[in-house]
Amino acid sequence: MHPHKAHYDRHAGSTENVAFMKRISKQRIDPPAVLPGMGVADLIDSAFLSYNGGRLREGCQLYAQRMLAPDCTVGLALSGALTPAGLGMSCLVPLIEAGFIDWIISTGANLYHDTHYALGMDLYQAGPNLPDLELRANQVIRIYDIIFDYENLLGTDKFYRTLCRGDAFQGTFGTAEFHGLVGKYLAEREDQTGIKGKSMLAAAYRCGVPIFTSSPGDSSIGMNLAALMLEGNKLRLDPLRDVNQSASIVWEAKAHGGTSGVFILGGGSPKNFMLQTEPQIQEVLGLAESGHDYFLQFTDARPDTGGLSGATPSEAMTWGKVDPDKLPGTVTCYVDSTLSLPLITAYALSRTAPRPHKRYLDKLPALTAKLEARYAEIRAERGE
Asked: SS3 letters for 3-70?
């Protein structure tokens, strides 16, 4: 007799065993066949069962069923060169217009390349194995398998320098205020040309979605603003204002019984800047709070290399960034954003009705004033 046969005979199919498996399982693996014409959302629900496919399904369901509830404020952290690949117009603009994104923290590069499309410039698909010396000789710029004319950079630089020499830009702005003003002019340009739906900046302005940049000098937009400073231009960006304004959005979301969800594409500085809103509220300002309620990240970064992009929701919980009571409402899916973003966009638009826009861009001064007033009360209570 096999030494373990008695063990198998004794336990196989036992009532206790089945009950235990049911407690820890989600569903029995018995998917229907994939059929021609099956919709994306149905495909994800039925065939994406395990491994990273399973995590992607869980992420889609978390986003559509819980994060897009009427009382949840959804923040998007955006890194990686997604807008030049067309994912701004194909995915992010529809999500913004549907009310599925309430505020954004993005790299400046994504906003700079987004501007190409608003200005009617062309970018092209190519391949990853290109003769870079020949591209350089022919003034062709490459972002992996995307190529475009060097004139796109010069034209976009000229647009920002000309725009920001205007009277409306002579002052100090938070980056969300600055991008809102840029978005206003890009939206007007889209109205004039009839080319709509191409720019995330324009869509965010129309829908009142604030877009922050955690490192405003780290992009071609920041480079051009630095050049304007040498001319004596009075435009200044205040990243500390961003810290308080972004915290005020989360404070407002939670203060009246609502929830806060973070949707992270990639990682880097935008991820940390979005998550640090909770330590800012709790640790620094001393206000009663417990962390973001929902955490959804698509990343290809591992947690064991010491990089923030791979930091898990449970690790973030130790900093106060994620509510420990809400850890079941977290999903990390190890797949890159160029695969996951179109899928979750199609899923959400199929499964969830559009939401009213919260228009936090219009409310930033009032929200920050409320946070400031509450902080003053806390300081008075502490005798500071």
From this structure: CCHHHHHHHCCCHHHHHHHHHHCCCCCCCCCCCCCCCHHHHHHHHCCCHHHHHHHHHHHHHHHHHCCC
Judge whether 327 lies within some domain.
Answer: yes
- β-strand pairing of 140-143 with 211-212: unpaired
Please tell me the pTM assigned to this model: 0.90
Does any domain span residue 15? no
CATH number of the domain within which 277 lies: 3.40.910.10
Distance from chain centroid for Cα 281: 20
Residue at 310 is within a domain: yes
Query: Which residues are tagged catalytic?
Result: 321
**306-344 residue pLDDT tens:** 666 656 666 665 666 666 666 667 888 899 999 999 999
Total domains in the chain come to 1
pLDDT tens readout for residues 99-156: 999 999 999 999 999 999 999 999 999 999 999 999 999 999 999 999 999 999 999 9
Range(s) of the domain holding residue 101: 40-44+60-110+155-382
Question: Which residue in 253, 251, 247 sits closest to 280, CA to CA?
Answer: 247
Query: What average pLDDT does the structure give for the chain?
Result: 90
